[in-house]
Structures are given as C-alpha cells and as structure tokens.
Amino acid sequence: MGNRVLRQVIIASLGAYLLTGCLLPETELPSVTFDEYQVTGQQKRPTSLNWWHRLENDALQSLIAEGLKNSPTVEQAYAQLQQAEAGRTIARSSLFPAVTASGTPSKSYKDRTTQTVAASVAATYEVDLWGKYSSQASEGEATYAQRHWDLQTAKLSLSSEIATAWLNIAALNDKIAILQHQIQVNKDVLELQNKRYLVGSATALDVLQQEELLASVKAQLPPLQSSLAQEKNSLSVLLGEIPDENNGYNFSLKGLSPQLNVASYNLKNLQDRPDIQSAWMSVIAQKYQIDQSRADILPDVSLSGASDWSGAVLSQLTNQWVLTLAGQISATLFDGGARQATVDQNEALLAQRLGAYRETVLTAIQDVRDAALAYDYQEQTLHLLQEQKQHSARALQQAEDSYLVGDTSYLNVLTSLTSLQSLERTLIDSQRDLLLDEVSFYRALGGVLPNSMSETKETENEL
C-alpha cells in the first residue's frame, strides 16, 4: 500500500516537472574587470591581517592585539558572524525531512490495573525539484562568508584607527617635549638679554621682544596638552577601556622610520581587501535569492508519512501499528503577478548590488592610488623641511654672530630663532603625516602584506 502511494507521488512530481519544460535556469553573474584587478566568483576565506608588523614597534603591536581582543566594534562584528552561522544551519535544515515523535502512557483501575501505551512518528519532506532549498542553503553559505569578511573589515578599520591614534599621541608627546625645551631656551636667552641690558649691551626693546617670543611659545603648550588628553581618551575607547587620565600612553616617534616601497605593490593586492570580498559575497547571496523566487512560481511537491502504535503493554506495540504515506502537489494558479514581481524585484536588487560592488572596487583603486600619491609627496615634503631646517640653523648662527659684533639688530636673531623653533615642531608633524600615509596605504590595500616579513599570530578564535 505504502509503496503504491509513493510511486504515485513520484509520477505526479515528474509530470509537474515535465510540464515546466526544463529545470530553472541558473542566474549568471557577469565577469568584471577593473584595470589590473580581475574579479572572480571564487570564494576566499579571510586572511590574517599583518600590516602593522611592517612598522616594527612592539608597543603598537601590543595595543592592536589588545584592541582586536577587547573592542566593542569587533565584538559586534563577531556576533553578526555567529548569527550568520546560525542562519546557515537554518537554511540547510530545509534539505532534510522534518520528523516528530510523541508517546502517551496511561493506566486503568476499573476492574484490574491495565497499562496502555500509544506512540506515533510523523515525517514530512518537500521535494527540492527546482533547487529552491539548495539555493537557500547556498545563500546561507554566501551570507556566512560575507560576515567573515565584514569581521575582517572591522578588524582592519580598528587596527588602522588604533595606529592613527597611537601616532597622533606619539607626535603630540614629542611636540610637547620639544616645546618645553624651546621654552627653557627662550627663558635662558631672556635672562641673558636682561644681563646684557644691565651692562648696556642690549636695549629695552631687545628684552621686550624676547619676552614676547617666550610668551608666544608658552601659549602653544595648553592646546597641545588638550589634544593629547583627547587622543588618549580616543585610544582608550578603541581598546575597549574606560578613558583615564593616568593611562600612561607615553609614546614617541623616535626610532620610527617609514618602511613603505610603493613601487613593490600593484592593484592585484586588492584581492585581499575585505570590503571588496564582502560586497562580492553579497552579490552571490542575491543571486541565490533570485533562484529561490523563480522556484516559488512552480508547484511544490511534498511527501509525508506517519506511523501509529498502541497496545496494552509496550512489548505489544510491534504487533499493532498503522503506517500512512501520502504525497501532495500544490501550485498557485493566480496571484496577481506577485511571485513574478518578486523575481523582478530580486533581479533589480542584484543589479543594485553589482553596482555597489563595482563602486567598492573603484573606490578601493582610488584609495590605493590616493594613498600612494599622498605618501610620495609627503616624503618629498619631509626631505625639503629637513633641508630647510639646516639652512635655518645656519641663518640663526649667522644672525647671532652679527648681533654680538653689532652688525645687525636683535630682531634678525628673533626672526631666525622663531623660524627654527617653528620648523622643529613642523618636522614632527611632517614625520607623523608620512607614517599616517603609510598606514593609509596598508589599509587601502586590505591590511595583508604580500611576502610580509612576519605573520601575525592573531586568529579569529582569539575573539
């Protein structure tokens, strides 16, 4: 009996399939090529970030490792990955039958004690003739991969922001140190001018001008201290910590030198950029959405079976059972075009995601080229400032010598001294900007260095 019903269901299902003419066509994705970078549909697992090892600073590496472990931003991205993992399992479940079981024991005491047991098992399964549920499972896989890349994107952004805050703090510490040194130098010069004034070797104007310079240099200290405190607070939040004035972030740019060789990179390195991979997996997931909406137009074929047992005692259940097997085909004859409109809607959404993907790739290429240009011109700027400082130091020495022999006024000394001290502070900013441009370049590439000197030990399991 059961085998006959099953054969009828299969025959009916095949009939419905033949009426459609053929299997549903699979959605094809276009091939996209941008300059040196060619897009493929091959899924890749996120590679470990390692860009900060190129800076060769233990303090920075330690802070980034701490941030990746404790940051709320990464924690949220990891929670989204866990949600996608659960969603992937849910999507896969449609490929398997649903089985339920129940049992009811009872006792009767009317004439004599009698124990009875009733049990039943039911199973339902929807035949995936049109690939609806396999597409659903594939969409779950694509979404899961997308969340992996989103997690990598969050890590890349966080590590870059930590490095940026670290460099800003280091530069501010160095500027405050050199400013305090300049204040002391100006105090010493003012004391010397006062002595020279008492013996008639300097004028009152010379003393007043030096006092003005000293006050001008002092006035630059509070804004730097305020900026330093704010940058420390920002770094604490990035690390997942409560901002504290006594955090001890006493970094310095001393010993740091840019290691970037822009010519050794090309746009092919963009294949490891996580936001590009995430955007592509979004396209893949939408492709499977279209396949599902197309399958919804066609008839659904489902099988169901149930077994019931009952008996006075449990050992008699095998002698008293009933098995039922049934098949069902259902199809929507008229829905006002709603299902076809869903297909059209998903196809339009695919076009939108492809456009977003193209934009992501183009933006990534622009980011790399902009960062390379910024680094190149900032490197030139730093070298010119260093050369200017050498000339300014010689000019100050000449102005002092001329002033001591009475060939020039003290104003020339003040002008040269002000210029040199300003250049010293500007050089710190320029060195910081060059390092920031290096960080921006690594971030634009995706945070993974080709042929890197060292590999990071950080893994996703550390989260």
Kindly describe this structure.
The protein has 463 residues and is an alpha+beta fold. Helices cover 60% and strands 11% of the residues. The chain has a four-stranded antiparallel β-sheet with strand order 3-4-5-6. A two-stranded antiparallel ribbon has the order 1-2. A hairpin with a 2-residue loop joins strand 1 (33-34) and strand 2 (37-38). The longest helix has 67 residues, at 132-198. The protein is elongated. The two termini are 56 Å apart. Residues 1-25, 31-43 and 452-463 have low confidence and may be disordered.
Structure summary, number of beta strands: 6
Shape: elongated
Distance between the termini: 56 Å
Q: Give the percentage of residues in beta strands.
A: 5-15%
Helix segment tally: 9
Structural class label: alpha+beta
What strand order characterises the main sheet? 3-4-5-6
Instruction: Report Rg.
Output: 37 Å
In this structure, how is the largest beta sheet organized? 4 strands, antiparallel
Weakly predicted, low-confidence segments: 1-25, 31-43, 452-463
Helix and strand succession? HEEHHEEHHHHEEHH
Helix content: 55-70%
Mean pLDDT: 78
